[in-house]
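Practice problem 4.
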């Protein structure tokens, strides 16, 4: 079975926008296009439901039902209970709240493990726990390849480690980390696991229940949705951590780590992400429960992306003028390709824009990873990122533009 790209692109209004015609979008890792069901739900909420939810009148009742629907349906895709899913303004904010919860949970003689492969959102808040007397141990990437070796983690694990934080895949290295294997190693040592899935989720929302981590975070706005951070918190850990919400919401798992009032409209609109996945599943004959439909769509997305990605990796690997960050095998990485060169990356991105290619240059909040690989931070990296709605024609446009720029 192959992905019906015409059907896919018909679900994204951006592809019909006159101002975007001829523009190939390659900064999807910074924020994807939004699918039509999300836009429709957001519009409906603002026009028909924009009242305080969970009240006795129809508009309020429907508002609350749509918010609950988003949590229930996304939980089904991720293989977890609905109250194990919560929303926040961003993954960065969600992680900060989590770090505050762990600050009240950990003892001063205990330790956590972080990596230098992460986006700063899953690194900085945890590292600040050192100010509270918590030992912070760094799991380092290979300086040449950016690879995060699970065997290196074993040297950091002992009875003092209570939490291991790492990315499903890095937003610059791109390599897909073996979440289940790493989680098993950490759990065997008695540690909890927090996975940053922001750079992976746009390529197929993960079945967190099967993967096994205690916490899994991703960003809806990079996954065809509204600007929300989505967090899975498994029950055993969530009930053990100190409540960060209002004291009277302590008994609600999905409210315990939402200290501020959530954006009701954007939570409701997040159900449109599930609408989109279900529409892809139905169109391609994928049946079963939410997790089965999500898994089938995930595989369709990945197969399409890998077919487009490998020629790009082959092209840049053959270029002496650039250094590919991360692996050169499309099967082992997300379609997020960072390139280091002797040219300033922001200048390269500006030159690509002249050829109708929308990309970005800089550090992408992954300074620790890039420094760990010896990248010149004054130049940064050019990042070319796409997702399953990208076409071969757009890839050809990118390769032709790179011929002119590199």
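Answer key:
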């Amino acid at each position: 079975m192959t992905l019906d790209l015409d059907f896919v692109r018909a679900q994204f209004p951006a592809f019909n926008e006159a101002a975007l015609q001829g523009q190939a979008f390659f900064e999807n890792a910074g924020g994807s296009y939004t699918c039509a069901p999300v836009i429709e739900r957001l519009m409906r909420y603002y026009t028909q439901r924009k009242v305080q939810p969970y009240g006795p009148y129809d508009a309020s009742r429907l508002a609350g039902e749509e918010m609950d629907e988003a949590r229930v349906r996304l939980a089904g895709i991720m293989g977890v209970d609905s109250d194990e899913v919560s929303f926040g303004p961003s993954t960065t904010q969600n992680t900060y709240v989590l770090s505050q919860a762990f600050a009240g949970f950990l003892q001063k003689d205990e330790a956590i493990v972080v990596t230098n492969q992460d986006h700063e959102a899953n690194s900085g808040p945890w590292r600040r726990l050192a100010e509270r007397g918590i030992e912070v141990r760094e799991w380092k990437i290979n300086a040449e390849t950016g690879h995060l070796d699970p065997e290196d983690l074993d040297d950091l694990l002992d009875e003092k480690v209570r939490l291991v934080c790492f990315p499903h895949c890095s937003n610059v290295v791109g390599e897909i980390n073996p979440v289940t294997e790493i989680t098993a190693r950490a759990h065997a040592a008695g540690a909890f696991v927090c996975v940053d899935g922001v750079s992976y989720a746009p390529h197929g929302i993960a079945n967190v229940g099967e993967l096994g981590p205690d916490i899994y975070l991703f960003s809806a706005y990079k996954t065809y949705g509204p600007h929300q951070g989505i967090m899975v918190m498994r029950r055993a850990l969530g009930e053990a951590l100190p409540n960060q919400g209002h004291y009277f919401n302590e008994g609600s798992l999905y409210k315990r780590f939402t200290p501020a009032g959530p954006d009701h409209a954007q939570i409701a609109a997040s159900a449109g992400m599930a609408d989109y996945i279900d529409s892809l599943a139905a169109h391609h004959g994928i049946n079963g429960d939410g997790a089965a439909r999500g898994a089938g769509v995930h595989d369709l997305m990945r197969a399409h992306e890998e077919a487009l990605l490998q020629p790009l990796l082959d092209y840049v690997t053959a270029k002496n003028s650039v250094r590919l960050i991360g692996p050169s095998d499309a099967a082992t990485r997300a379609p997020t390709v960072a390139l280091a060169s002797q040219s300033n990356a922001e200048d390269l991105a500006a030159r690509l824009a002249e050829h109708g290619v929308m990309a970005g240059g800089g550090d992408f909040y992954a300074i620790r990873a890039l420094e760990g690989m010896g990248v010149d931070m004054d130049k940064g990296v050019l990042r070319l990122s796409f997702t399953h709605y990208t076409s071969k024609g757009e890839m050809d446009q990118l390769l032709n533009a790179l011929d002119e720029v590199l």
